[in-house]
Amino acid sequence: QSVLTQPPSVSGAPGQRVTISCTGSNTNIGAGYDVHWYQQLPGTAPKLLIYGNNNRPSGVPDRFSGSKSGTSASLAITGLQAEDEADYYCQSYDSGLSWVFGGGTKLTVL
Amino acid sequence: QVQLQESGPGLVKPSETLSLTCAVSGYSISSGYYWGWIRQPPGKGLEWIGSIYHSGSTYYNPSLKSRVTISLDTSKNQFSLKLSSVTAADTAVYYCARSRGHSYGFDYWGQGTLVTVSS
User: CB distance from A59 to chain B under 8 Å?
Assistant: First the structure.
């Protein structure tokens, strides 16, 4: 059971918008700690997609965006493409546990 | 360009100690940042193992703290992970990664190395 809760799977058709939620608690996201998002393509290492809730590292398309409110955060992907099919993980800091990850969400592009 | 590369035995016997090294190029580990280890059991999610600050301060996952040691070797620009008393549950791909701090995430990752615990 992960400290941060994500839906196991989401799906969408090419061109659509999908969102992935990440629910925490008052000891992590709700305590004001930032949320980060990673994309993991099959057989590869995770790649930082969003840091500090809503910031994109250089090279990440603006189709990817993040938001945070209360004890939850969300990753939104617009203009869905086949290459976006991957596993997505949220990550934050927890006052009792240090760095924590969500359980991951598998995105399927229909 | 910052690069991280994990190395170590791919097979460890139960009850023994897992030892991995992460060689860093393109950045001096003594200059800054946190240097961390994250693992991923086959078909499962990511688990943070621990991190070490460039000053040498260490931070460990409470669930693994009694078995984990992370250290720096600035002369070789690398850092290491030791996990003692391993069991089959420690079988995973082990990644090393860099973070500026808990407000920035892990921005550079190694490719990962699979460690299997089996007799």
Answer: no
* Distances, alpha carbon A5 to alpha carbons A28, A58, A80, in Å: 12, 27, 23
Interface contact B48-A36, CB threshold 8 A = no
Report the mean per-residue pLDDT for chain B.
96
Look at residue A18 and give its three-state secondary structure: strand
CA angle A1, B36, B39 (to 5 degrees): 40
Could you give the residue ranges of the DSSP H alpha helices within A59-100? none
Chain B contact probe: residue of A39, A44, A64, A99 with most B CBs at under 10 A: A99
In chain A, which residue's Cα lies nearest the Cα of B6? A45
Within 10 angstroms of residue B14's Cβ, the number of other Cβ atoms is 12
- Report residue A2's pLDDT band, with 50, 70 and 90 as the boundaries: confident
pLDDT more than 90, % of chain B: 96
Q: Out of B59, B105, B112, whose CB is closest to A91?
A: B105
- Whether residue B107 and residue A48 make contact (CB cut-off 8 A), yes or no, is yes
What pLDDT, in 10s, does the model give residues B25-63? 999 999 989 999 999 999 999 999 999 999 989 999 999
